[in-house]
Amino acid sequence: MSITYKGFFIISLLLIQQAHTQINPDSFESNKNIIIVRSKILDTKNAYIPYANIVFINLKTEDKAGVISNEDDGVFSIELIPGEYIVQISVLGYSKYTKNYHFFKDTVLKDIVLQEQNEQLDEVIIKGDISKNIKHSATSMTINIQNDTLYKKISAADILPLLPGVQIDQEGSVTLEGEPVTFLMNGKRQRMSSDILMMLLESIQGDGLKSVELINTPSAKYSGRIKKVIDINLKKQREDGIVGSVSTRVNNADFSIMPLISINYKTGKFVFTVSSMPYFYSKRTTSFFTNRQLLDNSLSFDDEQENLRKSTNSFNEFGVDYTINKKHSVSVGISLDNGNNESGIDYITNQFAFEALTNQQFTTNANKTHNDGYTLDFGYRYDIGEQGARLDFASSYGENTLDSDLLNENELIDVSDDTTVYENNRDGQNQKNKQFSSRLDYVLSLKDKKGKFESGIKYDDLSITDANIFESFNTDTNVYNIDTDFTNSFEYNEQVYTSYASFDSSHKKLKYSLGLRLEHVETQSFSETTNQTFNNTFSNILPVISLKYMTNEKQTSNISLSYRKGYNLPPYIQLNPFETFVNSNTIKRGNPELTQNIYHLLRLSHTINNKYFFTLNANFYTNLFQTTQILEDDITVISYQNLGKRSLYKASFSTTLNLYAWWRLNVNSMFNYSVLKSMSVDNSIFTWVTPTTNTFTLPNNYIINLSTYFSNGDSSGLDTPNSFLRVSTSISLSKRFFSNKLSTRIGISDIFGATNKNESSYIIDNTSYSSRVLIQNPRISFRASYNFSSGKKVNKKAKKSSAVDGSRF
Questions:
Q1: What values do phi and psi take at 262, rounded to 5?
Q2: For residues 708 and 735, is the Cβ–Cβ distance under 8 A?
Q3: Rounded distance, CA 471 to CA 758, Å?
Q4: b/e code 85-121 from CB counts within 10 Å (16+ = b)
Q5: Sign, CA torsion 13/18/20/24
Q6: Contact (CB, 8 A) for 320 and 270
Q7: Beta strand 134-136 with 140-144: parallel, antiparallel or unpaired?
Q8: 174 phi and psi angles, rounded to 5 deg
Q9: For the chain, first and last CA: distance in Å?
Q10: 3-state class of 203 per DSSP?
Q11: Strand (E) positions, 484-624?
């Protein structure tokens, strides 16, 4: 099987080289009942006008269809049924354009010239109607940010939870229709941590965004391990000079501060980018309460933990894009990550035998870690011919080193005879990993850009060495001696060979995407202490089918059906059979028998007038793996296990209502029903959450955001949710100063402490487990961002030759 997939990997490269000659764009004929009208919007100086609003009114049916001129060149293109139309064009600062046209075939109109208005407008209020700002493809929806006055006044981080199906929890984790999100920015995947990414999104104001694409069914070009994607497209820099922002965020829980500077410098054909978080400090205190017991109540443990974490980190990213000419472009980047983390955990554990206290344990863990890492990226794009074909090559290489030093102090008191045993030990760890990735993609646009064909190959290699030295303190000699039972060296290597092909097009009102992805994974892990080698091979054929039928002429309503297959690999460290020490009654144990988890995602959605969004998801998992805590011979064993089959059913509803010109209500509801059955666990769980967000736009650029989350708790599918209603409320006030260059926001979240009511419980085999977390509330945060720019406009000819598009890579 390995030879077959490697052979397919090589054959796919040959297919990419031949694809341009094998596919004839002219073979994809447009529907005879649909015509295409194109033109360009210019001013009186022959400079193109972006974002002009063009409306076509059919004189016979009175139906309306709209389009917006491109940001790049002022061009617009629209599909119409033949007939007589009134064309109305409007854009801020120009006189309105109205004219009658007869369209009976594909038509390219002469350039349309708009006259500048002489009078200046002090204030213009544009109604933000999201229904006019959404475009649909077979796999996604794209929201135009620039046509919404509210979105232009708030940050990208504040815009996201107002979009259909997007939710952000108290910790800043983003989900789309209940699934974790992979973030792209101008088509580039973001490698930074979730904290840094959220800080970057907070620094980007809406008036600097072009659009946000919500990809609910990623096409075959995306990894089989990716379920949902959000692509944030920034406005292009059209002037030579500097554009940037300086931002900071301060939280009280317990305290954190995160400054960030982001700069783009454009000169001719070069664009230099810098994102730097030179210093990030965070302190957080968390309390955990845990109970583990056998079902016959013969043995149980009550744990109370106090966890104090401190972090000092920095992150820097540098890049340069260079447009060689209109056909060739290159991109080079480097990211640097450095951090120091300290954590202290104090345990108090009471052990009971048949409800009688038998012993108490007091444990202190003091851990210090340091990491250094870097990643190099290279991208090349070649635009082939005039039909929109292109070839993309990208490669990356990264190294990371992690050093950890853990000190354990343990005091065990036997209640029966009042004796005490002291244990001191330390655990040193050094981990190094190297990652290499390279891909080649071919894209061909179909006639009139009504679709595209994509294919590509990719190779990934991950190598990790993990050396662990465990030492126990000898009270007789007052020295630390190596304990071979908890000392281990572990090596892991993972290679992934990938090929894919994807076809996107439309027929009449039907938009569709068909794709196939093949991923062949080979893993090898070796434990020096146990002298064991484990090899695994996974070969997956991953189809993607997405159909979207537009139910009205305006293409604002549709019914969508999609299927996608994917997989998850076990965390590499969990494949190590070695045991690690937590305290006297708790250990962590690896499981080399873990196998991959396959999932099938079925999605049915209905959109009404781009205002009401209904979605049903049915997800089916085989060999689901998850961490568990099980009692074995008076010891708690923390380990990953394959738990069997899981069915997860989700229903969601989203809408945005403009109640008044100053009041907007957003609702994003999610209902989950999970069924997990195996020999060790059997449960059915229902959870729901309904976030509501009220946004009030007040005079003088004040914006109040009031969000309330109603839910019955959280569940991973293994544990049961709370039996009570949770109501979590947050409020924020935003204000812009100095000609909108300075943006400030103060917010208070979890006002009533609902997060502290989190509970988790499950039963596996003969062990029941429950836990609760206590964190500081309410959480107060303040952030400020100052945007700056300098430079002058380039002339028209230079603008055409020097424009750099970050999404090219």
A1: -130, 125
A2: no
A3: 37
A4: bebbbebeebeebeeeeebeeeeeeeebebeeeeeee
A5: negative
A6: yes
A7: antiparallel
A8: -105, 135
A9: 33
A10: helix
A11: 488-507, 510-527, 532-550, 558-568, 579-583, 586-589, 597-608, 612-622
What is the model's pLDDT at position 118? 55
> Which distant-in-sequence residues (6+ apart) come within 8 Å of 649 by Cβ?
616, 617, 618, 619, 672, 673, 674
Q: Write phi, then psi, for 645 (nearest 5 degrees).
A: -95, 140
Nearby residues of 493 by Cβ (< 8 Å), 6 or more positions away: 461, 462, 463, 464, 523, 524, 525
**Residue 45 DSSP label:** T
Burial of residue 672, with CB atoms counted within 10 A of its CB: 0-12 exposed, 13-18 middle, 19 or more buried: buried
Name which of 549, 385, 520 is nearest 460 in CA terms.
520
Tokens representing 150 are 């509210």
Cβ neighbourhood burial of 326 (10 Å; 0-12, 13-18, 19+): exposed
Name the residue type at position 486: F
Other Cβ atoms less than 10 A from the Cβ of 599: the count is 20
pLDDT value for 268: 86
Contacts of 720 (CB under 8 A, 6+ apart): 683, 685, 760, 761, 762
Distance (Å, whole) CA 363 – CA 343: 14
Q: Quick one: which of 510, 553, 519 has its CA closest to 538?
A: 519
Mean pLDDT by runs of 10 across the 809 residues of the chain is 48 44 39 79 84 86 83 84 89 84 88 73 40 84 86 89 88 87 87 81 86 95 93 80 91 90 90 91 92 92 93 93 90 94 93 93 93 94 83 95 93 90 91 95 81 94 93 90 88 95 92 96 88 90 97 91 95 84 86 91 96 96 89 89 91 93 92 86 86 92 91 66 75 90 92 78 86 88 90 43 35
**Backbone dihedral angles phi then psi of residue 463, each to the nearest 5 degrees:** -125, 130
Distance CA 624, CA 568 (A): 9
Give the dihedral sign, CA 494/192/271/205.
Answer: positive
Q: What is the DSSP string of 409-458?
A: EEEEEETTTTEEEEEEEEEEEEEEEEEEEEEEEEEEE-GGGS-EEEEEEE
Instruction: For residue 658, give the nearest of 243, 42, 270, 133 by alpha carbon.
Output: 133
Task: Give the number of residues written for the chain.
Answer: 809
Q: How far apart are CA 347 and CA 471, in angstroms?
A: 20
Q: Which amino acid is at 336?
A: L
DSSP-based three-state secondary structure for 62: coil
**Cβ neighbours of residue 782 under 8 Å, at least 6 residues apart?**
249, 250, 744, 745, 746, 747
The answer to whether 397 touches 436, Cβ cutoff 8 Å, is: yes
Element (H, E) at 801: helix 796-802
Return the bridge partners of 318, or none.
274, 334
Tokens in use for 410? 């343990």
What token pair was written down for 461?
Answer: 């290699």
Helix then strand then coil, in percent of the chain rounded to 5, is 10, 65, 25
The whole-model pTM stands at 0.81
Q: Which residue has the tokens 């401190």?
A: 310
Q: Can you say how many angstroms the Cα of residue 712 is from the centroid of all Cα atoms in its chain?
A: 25
**Cβ–Cβ contacts within 10 Å for residue 698, how many?**
11
Residue type, 377: D
In the block, tokens 């059919």 appear at 58
User: Rounded to the nearest 5°, which phi and psi values hold at 47?
Assistant: -90, 135
Exposed e or buried b for every residue in 455-489, given b needs 16+ CB within 10 A? bbbbebebbbebebbbbbbeeeeeeeeeeeebbbb
Q: Are 155 and 145 in contact (CB under 8 A)?
A: no
